[in-house]
Write a structure and sequence with these properties.
The chain is an alpha/beta fold. Helices cover about 45% and strands about 10% of the residues. The protein has nine helices and 14 strands. The longest helix is centred in the first third of the chain and has 23 residues. It starts with a helix and ends in a 10-residue tail after the last strand. About 35% of the residues are buried. The C terminus is likely disordered.
Length: about 300
């Protein structure tokens, strides 16, 4: 067999030389962005905090709840502090800050994030209720919490959204994209979603960054709540590009609702495969696939 060591050495030298460019992909520093594996591990531990009787830690011990929660929060906070401190390098006002300043800011953010966990649990509890009321195939709440991908995606989104609100770069998106990879449900952490949110089946759902969703909204598989155009991407950053869905709206499978000026009025029902780029009055029933929507 031919000795390939020389060939491999030539390949290594060639690729190392290619790394010496000034492109974004030539970045080789491993420790100035968050560790995605660590963020994924933290998601599991955060779910244990949100649902204390449903998910065990890897090395579970029979502590009392006070001791168990203390150990768990200290563990997550230690790692979250480190990951946020690294992520802050991406924030304009922190990119030139000292390591100590970033560590201090990360600590403040982590403490505030954990103080918001009761709020997250308040919203998630309503989501569980919405799943039980909205899906006749759900026979109890345990089944929903332990096995429904829609609830998993929503819960991860709600945790990531709080970090997004606290101006943490990168980590919220890593969290929701991990949930996306596991469930097929893509909810941007920047979206604003009210209580009692129900996703049925879920595969293929997309919820864009500036989407606003009210209370008691039901969304079925294959729904896109997205932007109208990706032209002038830089100019669109920070603008309202995605629709507003008001309270008590139901959106059936395959519907596409697009554009920042598109508002789906309270109590409307959007039929399967509808394509909507204009505001819809409250109480409407949209049945046809058209820009000029058929309404009752």
């Amino acid at each position: 067999m031919k000795d390939t060591n020389k060939d491999i050495k030539k390949i290594v030298d060639k690729i190392l030389k290619d790394y010496q460019g000034d492109r974004d992909i030539d970045h080789i520093e491993l420790f100035d962005q968050p560790d995605t594996k660590m963020v994924q591990e933290m998601i599991g531990k955060l779910l244990t905090i949100v649902f204390p009787g449903f998910f065990r830690e890897q090395h579970y011990r029979f502590y009392n709840m006070d001791s168990r929660l203390t150990v768990l929060i200290e563990d997550v906070m230690f790692n979250l502090n480190k990951q946020i401190a690294v992520a802050l390098l991406q924030r304009e006002d922190m990119k030139d800050a000292s390591e100590d300043a970033r560590a201090e800011e990360a600590q403040k953010i982590s403490l505030e994030f954990f103080n918001r966990i009761p709020k997250v649990r308040e919203y998630v509890d309503t989501d569980v209720e919405a799943f039980e009321e909205g899906d006749p195939a759900a026979y109890n709440k345990n089944e929903i919490i332990l096995s429904y991908p829609g609830l998993y995606a929503i819960t991860v989104y709600r945790l990531a959204h709080e970090l997004q609100q606290l101006r943490v770069p990168l980590i919220p998106r890593i969290m929701t994209e991990y949930a996306h990879s596991k469930t097929g449900i893509d909810i941007n952490p920047g979206a604003t979603i009210g209580k009692y949110f129900f996703i049925d089946h879920g595969t293929g759902i997309v919820v864009g960054e500036t989407t606003i969703i009210g209370d008691r909204v039901k969304v079925y598989q294959g729904v896109t709540i997205g932007a109208l155009s990706t032209r002038d991407v830089i100019g669109l950053k920070g603008e309202k590009r995605h629709p507003t869905i008001e309270d008590d709206v139901t959106i059936y499978s395959g519907a596409s609702i697009l554009g920042g000026e598109t508002v789906i009025g309270k109590g409307s029902v959007i039929g399967s495969n509808a394509f909507i780029t204009e505001p819809i009055p409250a109480g409407s029933k949209v049945k046809m696939m058209s820009n000029k929507n058929s309404e009752d």
